[in-house]
Structure of ATP-binding protein:
Amino acid sequence: MNTRPTTLGELRATGHVHRSVKAEIRHNLLARLRSGEPRFPGIVGFDGTVLPHVERALLAGHDLVLLGERGQGKSRLIRTLGGLLDEWTPIVEGCEINDHPYAPVCVRCRRLLAEAGDDLPVAWKHRDERYGEKLATPDTSVGDLIGDIDPIKVAEGRTLGDPETVHYGLVPRTNRGVFCVNELPDLAERIQVSLLNVLEERDVQIRGYNLRLPLDILLVASANPEDYTNRGRIITPLKDRFGAEIRTHYPLDVDEELVLIGQEAEVAAAVPVHLMEVIARFTRLVRESPAVDTRSGVSARFAIAATETVAASALRRSALAGEEQPVARVCDLPSIVPTLLGKVEFEVSEEGREEEVLAHLLRRATAETWRRTLGPVDLSGLLDRFDRGATVGSGELVAAADLLHRIGPVPGLSRIMNALGMEGESPGHAAAALEFALEGLYLMRRLSKDTEDGTTTYRT
């Protein structure tokens, strides 16, 4: 940064070219498309559906609104757009609205340019500082978004008609950047009107000032479907001014759900892949269930929170039972049902049966995962022990070593672990594999199970 130009004259001498924000994004997006670099890092499941629409909108220079149910990654996707800006951009030093030194638009910077000429001080702004965001809430005002009179500047002796008495809102302060309005329908309709000029005439109007402030900005909004929220709507003139409306969606298959869980969940203990698959399938079954209000959706945060809860259950067991290496097991799965109830909106007809519905879907998800992973595996070595009258007790507070001791040696354990994609044979992973095998045999009606006070007993 020390070698970058610090005055307008030095900037001109480098041959720097001034581009609008949308031209800047178009140029950088095209470069990444040609090179094969990631355009939207961290975004999962949108490659063949949502992202092509976003890319076309950006190449067209359109402002856009992302429409979709909660937890589909709308905000996450919007926040990646700042990465398509130039890494560093010049601004007039001290400018509140990031004026470009070649073409300042605010009164202060135009005056400074007239006074200093090529000696106009230049500062540099990183692209991370050129992204602005506002969650639309009912108390959001035009002053928050656009601006208002600054009483302190008036008190300093300036007249009310002086444009420099204006305190700029969030939108002008993100000039020459990307600004996001999250949950746009929640913004009061009279406040939405203040954005009309931003999207069409590209300027703002503040109070009764004779002030035209042409903005260079990419405006992006997120919204839930109006038929679900019933809290508000995007007014028709504002909708018309967005160049593109793009629908988002949840991951389309289990593999994408698994990638998302692995990427986003912050786990405090090891969670084997087969348990994450159970959670991914469980999430999809909840979304598809007729007992759940499909208009509300089931957020991706549902699966992420479930994975973190299962890991926390394993960590708790390790502390209470003295395990050295906490590994999540099937016995940790039931703990997610009561904790996730608040993330699902059920149909009115299911009132009082919410936990029962989720518990049933969790068993289905476990059975489907078992059939895919251990269905083809020979489990006769494990079943032989039960044919001889053995019983095995487990539970959320039974340590892995204790569970392995109760089961005893199992011929073919390595085949079970390999089928589940487990590497190594730590006691925690071996216990997780065997308990999953036992649970699947119960769900396939090859074994019976008694559950009481957090303990489980498997028998023939």
